[in-house]
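Dear support,

Our group has been running a series of protein-ligand predictions, and this particular one with S-adenosyl-L-homocysteine is the one our PI (initials K.S.) wants archived with full inputs and outputs. We had some confusion internally about which version of the output was final, so please treat the block below as the authoritative record. The input we submitted was:
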Amino acid sequence: MERRYLVRTFGCQMNEHDSERIAGMLAADGMRPAEGLDDAQVVVFNTCAIRENADDRLYGNLGHLKPLKERRPDLRIVVAGCLAQKDRGEIQRRAPWVDVVVGTHALPGLLDLLRRAEVEGPQMDVREYTEVFPSALPAARGEGWRAWVSIAVGCDNACTFCIVPLVRGPQRSRPIADVLAEVRDLAARGVVEVTLLGQNVNTYGRDLTDPASARRPRFAELLREVDRVEGLRRIRFTSPHPHDFTPDVIDAMAECERVCEHIHFPLQSGSDRILRAMRRSYRRERYLAWLERIRERIPGVAVSTDIIVGFPGETEEDFRDTLDVVERARFDAAYLFRYSPRPGTVAATLPDQVPPEVAQERFERLVALQEAITAERNREQIGREVEVLVEGVGRRGGRAQARTRTNRIVHLDRPLAPGTFARARVTGAGAHHLVGELVEVPVAV
Ligand code: SAH
Ligand code: SF4
Ligand code: F3S
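Confirmed final output from the archive:
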């Protein structure tokens, strides 16, 4: 009987990209994707550790699997990703029916671990250092027209709220030639949009030396090289850290035609006092000045951000500083989070943890403000003509969902195949999307 796998992903884009590699390895081993739990012989949870509810979700899901595993002892349960790296042995203690715990650096060994689990019982590999980039593994990518490309793994920063450096380790960049080879290969196979992934893309290359020139490659150079790859039409990247956002990156963004006019620029807090406590080395005025330069240099650029509310010690005044920066920055979109203490981080040990009801109240005020700004930003688009790339069929059928270069979702009036480019006139704006009418029937690319 053909064996089938199910991979469930809980984290960020890097985590999703790792899932493509997990699926790729299982497929290369002769397995096929399952429809659901019932026809799967291998179930993989690719976990995230960024916030507390991620833990609860994993243990909840594993609890649901227990009776299934009792009925079908040949079912193999794998926990991968950042929570596997963080919780290690605790996973097998709390859920002894898990067969394999595979950390973020150990992905290439997954098939071996599964084989060993057959004979020896539960396996765990949570080594601390990436020897083989997941990029070297086979990938089962979800779509043929767009792809994520990892440019670096890990993070050398030490933001005091953040678990990522603990679970992903120090930054390791991929050589430019490797990244380019992957991008060229993708483009040759019909991929029109790539998203370059790294925890802090600006420090890309800091840990490398280019053998040809004996100096360190820089992110701006990488952008320019990727921009030259034949066949690509859109290049995105995530995320830059405001601290390292150097003018050469703004220039490269402005000058590279395929690099999209969108930047994810995480603010985290608008209070200098809190930024310092977070160990984010920029300050509010500097952040706003960068934003102004980016907007001057890249007309029409859209800016999104991440903000944390209720960091330890955050006073009403600090929070008002955040509201003030948000009002001035006029972000096109923002991902807003309530601070969640992560054991092992500096912030989790700080006194003055903000009571949950205070954090909740602030969170709601910030959401209301940002929603009004997002809606206003979206309304500004009405009447414009934009290039869109179709991503899928709209929920109501007979329509298509597409995305602008500025990362706005557009609901189109006619269905089109995913991966097609078209031009549309924006006729309406909702809270989180635009409505558009096709003005030019697309030509196949
Ligand atoms: N490397 C990326 C962030 C990865 S985590 C960057 O520096 O931009 C994604 C977002 O989750 C962060 O930007 C932050 O806003 C949020 N986050 C991280 N740790 C958190 C915590 N402990 N509580 C709440 N939000 C958190
Ligand atoms: Fe976390 Fe900061 Fe690194 Fe981003 S830059 S992953 S927030 S430590
Ligand atoms: Fe991503 Fe979550 Fe890990 S945000 S890097 S999957 S902790």
